[in-house]
Amino acid sequence: MAFKIILKNSGLFFLGCLIATALEIIFFSPISPDLIELPLASSSVSVSPPNNQLQRVTKLGEGFLKGPEDVAVDENGILYTATRDGWIRKMHRNGSWENWKKQQSQGLLGITTAKGGGLIVCDSEKGLLKFTEDGVTVLASHFHGSEIRFADDVIEASDGSIYFTVASTKFSFHNWYFDLLEAKPHGQLLKYDPSMEETSIVLDGLYFANGVALSKDEDYLVVCETFRFRCLKYWLKGESKGETEIFIENLPAAPDNINLAPDGSFWIALIQVIYEGTEFVHTSKVLKQIIANFPKLVNYINGATKRAAVINVGANGNILKRLDDPNGTVMSFVTSALEFDDHLYLGFLIAITLQIIFFSPISPDLLQLPVVSSVPVSPPNNQLQRVTKLGQGLLIGPEDVAVDENGILYTATRDGWIRRLHRNGSWENWKNLQSQGLLGITTAKGGGLFVCDSDKGLLKLTEDGITILASHFDGSEIRFADDVIESSDGSIYFSVASTKFKRHNWYLDLLEAKPHGQLLKYDPPTDQTSIVLDGLYFANGVALSKDEDFLVVCETSRFRCLKYWLKGETKGETEIFIDNLPAGPDNINLAPDGSFWIALVQIFYEGREFVHTSKALKHVIANFPELVKYVIGPTKSAAVINVGANGNILKRFGDPNGTVMSFVTSALEFQDHLYLGSLNTDFVGKLPLK
Ligand SMILES: *[C@@H]1O[C@H](CO)[C@@H](O)[C@H](O)[C@H]1NC(C)=O
Ligand SMILES: *[C@@H]1O[C@H](CO)[C@@H](O)[C@H](O)[C@H]1NC(C)=O
Ligand SMILES: *[C@@H]1O[C@H](CO)[C@@H](O)[C@H](O)[C@H]1NC(C)=O
Ligand SMILES: *[C@@H]1O[C@H](CO)[C@@H](O)[C@H](O)[C@H]1NC(C)=O
Question: Which residue did the predictor score with more confidence, 278 or 311?
């Protein structure tokens, strides 16, 4: 079976990781997240349907401006923009561009023209700056003893006061996504008074304070809270002076820069900070912490989709117009919109392209997780803690066990050895197969052993040597042979967990959740392999019934086992043997009384099942194998069940917190004892049944 790979590589390391993960994520996480309040789907604002008006833009300075985030126009009609390379460039009325000033910063954000000439610029590294022909002045670099790290947008009032936002007092520009993940209000609106050269606070506790604009009469300010999908109105004059109210909320995307239009309305650029289909991330604190530990992941979750939208909002907060480029054909990630001379000037940051779908190794389906215990399962017990440990220290991850007619017990371990235990209690290193992928084994009727090698196919071992029985089927390599059983007529039935993924990538099969498994039959006289069942969900353990009238094959990722009739009226038909198991069935073995022992493995961590309900997240995880261990993997527990030939669970043994055994992958009954293989142990467990 498949799970050995992790343990092979990293046994204890992996286990350590499992434990460490839980701790590390919470204590070393760069964020302490709150849940984000996602906007209600257009409840309070009436939004017209998307259009493609933004595709009509003329491109100014194309190829020359690298991410012009904001634009400003001075009284002479000169257009300014600050680009990612630290340049402030201006476009003269005759259409020619000039490289005006250069700042050693990659974080130039909001800009506004100064009444007396020059430009006021938010530098998210240095604070609030003023540029004139003569040079640059730092107006405000500190506030309240702390550096201003993330100045975002700025506006100048006619009395000379300069209002500017600080997106976050906790995170810097480079870590903006932490602020989004943390979803706490670290933003501020500050006021710089040039006559006093003093900075004071206007509003604190804002959710990513972004665009700021003054109303036409300068009786109020509007400040946009990007991650709250709303903008606030702060009164500067009149009866409600000093008070704050909501200007517009429940926006269809996050507001970025805001600019006053000549008619007194406002233009707000809307950015898609959260990818569609990944909103669920913001409903789980654990998941947020996981993502915060993998900054690369953030691109797949927080970011601008390839689209653009700007809205025009009246002074009363009603949306008047909406302009879109819904699939970013011409513009995407528009961060500001400025109206001047009957034209709208749009700034945009180059979108982080959503690559994940195209480069993902998987094409996932959603997994049907089992309905909670529709099979009567007795409560967990700790019977498996009573085992005697056989071959302790010698056996590394003995995944499967088999016993021959002489009572000799065989097991295949991660180091490629087939070892056997003689009746006198001594272990023998019998054969080494030079493989790390030995999975299911079964004793051969005429002596010897059949072995599923997930690298080489179906093998037969005798005292004389090794024979490869089947390495190819239908012109393709058999990559992931998993378990095997021999019938009394000599036919050998074996499962192939996945025809698409190899053992090393077993988790991709689980993520993809498509049926790539098979049950094959090898016929020794003709040396031919044929197909019995196709389209199985991670085909794992396979067993024959006592009368050999049916086969049972377990589908690990579907939490069920199927019955395939070999004889009788229903010969050739398949039905469900047992489904809705509490965990993924691994190996299955016939018991002497005609019942079956099935080992159950916990392949999905509790509480992380949500992963399997999102295709987007599956793509994300498939791109980051390191992440897989946070989502898929055996928990520190063990469970085996005894199921009657009719599919009813008769007994259940467990070690619920893995005190003695965990990750038990097979259970074989022999002479009133249960022999237990596991990928987590260095022994075979022996449990008395009487
Ligand atoms: C455009 O105007 C600017 C500023 O007046 C001037 O420096 C520049 O040479 C002009 N360019 C052209 C192509 O006329
Ligand atoms: C963009 O979307 C429009 C519908 O809004 C569609 O007709 C058009 O084909 C799309 N273009 C591209 C390049 O996807
Ligand atoms: C146990 O039996 C095996 C096989 O018969 C034999 O090779 C081995 O020497 C025996 N070991 C002991 C300690 O008796
Ligand atoms: C194991 O789980 C049981 C409950 O099933 C609990 O009482 C016990 O304290 C746990 N032991 C450890 C070591 O966590």
Answer: 311
Looking at 484-614, list the stretches that DSSP marks H as alpha helix, in order from N- to C-terminal side.
506-512
Q: Are residues 352 and 431 in the same domain?
A: no
Which three-class secondary structure string do you get for 208-263? Answer: CEEEEEECCCCCEEEEEEHHHCEEEEEECCCCCCCCEEEEECCCCCEEEEEEECCC
Q: Are residues 405 and 317 in the same domain?
A: no
**DSSP H/E element including 181:** helix 176-182
Q: For residue 99, what is the domain's CATH number? A: 2.120.10.30
Instruction: Looking at the CA of residue 425, tell me the nearest atom of ligand 3.
Output: 1
Position 79 in a domain: yes
Q: Is the CB of 422 under 6 A from ligand 3?
A: yes
Question: Closest ligand 4 atom to the C-alpha of 657?
Answer: 1
326 lines ligand 2 (CB under 6 A): yes
| pLDDT confidence band for 356 (50 / 70 / 90) | very low
Tell me which of 91, 96, 100 to substitute to probe ligand 1's pocket, judged by most ligand atoms within 8 Å of the beta carbon: 96
Per-residue pLDDT band for 309 (boundaries 50, 70, 90) equals confident
The ligand whose atoms approach the alpha carbon of 52 most closely is: 2
Atom from ligand 2 closest to the CA of residue 327: 1
Structural domains counted in the chain: 2
Q: 10 Å Cβ neighbour count for 575?
A: 11
What mean pLDDT comes out for the span 78-98? Answer: 87
Write the CB contacts of 157 (distance below 8 Å, at least 6 apart in sequence): 163, 214, 218, 236
Q: How confident is the model at residue 18 (pLDDT cuts 50, 70, 90)?
A: very low
- CA–centroid distance, residue 90 to ligand 1 (Å): 11
**Helix residue ranges, H only, 28-73:** none
30 Cβ neighbours under 8 A, 6+ residues apart: 175, 178, 292, 293
Tell how far the Cα of 669 is from the centroid of ligand 1, in angstroms.
91
| Ligand 4 center from residue 486 Cα (angstroms) | 40
Residues in contact with ligand 1 by the CB-under-6-Å rule are 92, 94, 96
Is the confidence at residue 500, as pLDDT, over 60? yes
Most informative mutation of 426, 427, 429, 430 for ligand 3 (most atoms within 8 A of CB)? 426
* Mean pLDDT on 648-655: 92
